[in-house]
Design brief:
Pfam family, one: Phos_pyr_kin
CATH superfamily: Ribokinase
Strand content: 15-25%
CATH class: Alpha Beta
Function: Catalyzes the phosphorylation of hydroxymethylpyrimidine phosphate (HMP-P) to HMP-PP, and of HMP to HMP-P.
Largest sheet: 9 strands, mixed
Catalytic activity: 4-amino-2-methyl-5-(phosphooxymethyl)pyrimidine + ATP = 4-amino-2-methyl-5-(diphosphooxymethyl)pyrimidine + ADP; 4-amino-5-hydroxymethyl-2-methylpyrimidine + ATP = 4-amino-2-methyl-5-(phosphooxymethyl)pyrimidine + ADP + H(+)
CATH architecture: 3-Layer(aba) Sandwich
Number of strands: 9
Protein name: Hydroxymethylpyrimidine/phosphomethylpyrimidine kinase
CATH topology: UDP-N-acetylmuramoyl-L-alanine:D-glutamate ligase
Helix content: 25-40%
Organism: Streptomyces kanasensis
Order of helices and strands: EHEEHEHEHEHHEEEHH
Radius of gyration: 17 Å
Number of helices: 8
Structural class: alpha/beta
Length: 269
């Protein structure tokens, strides 16, 4: 029997979530669910559960570079996704690696956890703005991250366009502003734009508190679509559909906020 053709390959560069709901664990689950081969560069280890982050330890820059080169130079990648990068040194190292890689990059500028725990040093914000965002094919900040990076505070759907413009000024080709944290409305509204064309993505807002890992999952799903050769708007639309289903079926774990359901498409009724 001849060997099977390998699926598209996606590399996540992110931190570990010991509870399995976000971070590298969420990324790899998403990639498997969407039919691509997931690989990982670990940037940090967290002690984390449904209640919050109890501790975080970043890896040395040398270890991050070695993991990245080990994967890219041998196996190759069709897309890269970044998540928790922790410090200015790691942000700048990863930005340099992305700039030298011929593959689309989805940058999730992780600043805080779902529970409000800081995951990025304040001193790293300038590095994200000046080094990481300029090499992004798609940047996927949530509203808190938009405010952290640009100072723009989004309180209504009408503010999303201004937020996207502020993010695009830092150089990503596309900005996907995630409006799921908006307080009002029956829909979760996101805006994808490159400054010329706009794509408004709407989905029902589900009454489910178990949404841990939503941002990681969405960014990984976008990367999976890009690895398959989809155009950015099509990759984002597919990712929005996948994460909407994952949120709707998120489940309780522990005593706090449970994860989205990365395997929702495979569950039997």
């Amino acid at each position: 029997m001849s060997p099977r053709t390998a699926p598209p390959r996606v590399l996540t560069v992110a931190g570990s979530d010991s509870g399995g709901g976000a971070g590298v664990q969420a990324d790899l689950k998403t990639m498997l669910a969407l039919g691509v081969h997931g690989m990982s560069v670990l940037t940090a280890v967290t002690a984390q559960n449904s209640l919050g982050v109890q501790g975080a330890w970043e890896l040395p820059e040398e270890a991050v570079r070695a993991q990245y080169r080990s994967v890219v130079d041998d196996i190759g990648v069709q897309a890269v996704k970044t998540g928790m990068l922790a410090s200015a040194a790691l942000v700048e190292a990863v930005a340099e690696l992305l700039a030298g890689t011929d593959a689309p990059a989805v940058v999730d500028p992780v600043g805080v956890s779902k529970h409000g725990d800081p995951l990025l040093a304040e001193s790293a914000l300038d590095s994200v703005r000046e080094r990481l965002l300029p090499v992004a094919t798609v940047a996927t900040p949530n509203l808190d991250e938009v405010a952290q990076l640009t100072g723009v505070r989004v309180t209504a759907e009408g503010d999303l366009r201004r937020a996207a413009g502020a993010v695009l000024e830092f150089g990503p080709r596309w900005a996907l502003i995630k409006g799921g944290h908006l307080p009002d409305g029956a829909e979760a509204v996101d805006l994808l734009t490159d400054g010329r064309e706009e794509h408004w993505l709407r989905a029902p807002r589900h009454d489910n508190r178990h949404t841990h890992g939503t941002g990681c999952t969405l960014a990984s799903a976008v990367a999976a679509g890009l690895a398959k050769g989809l155009a950015v708007p099509d990759a984002v639309r597919g990712a929005k559909e996948y994460v909407t289903g994952a949120i709707a079926t998120g489940f309780a774990l522990g005593g706090g906020i449970g994860p989205v359901d990365h395997g929702w498409r495979f569950r039997t009724p």
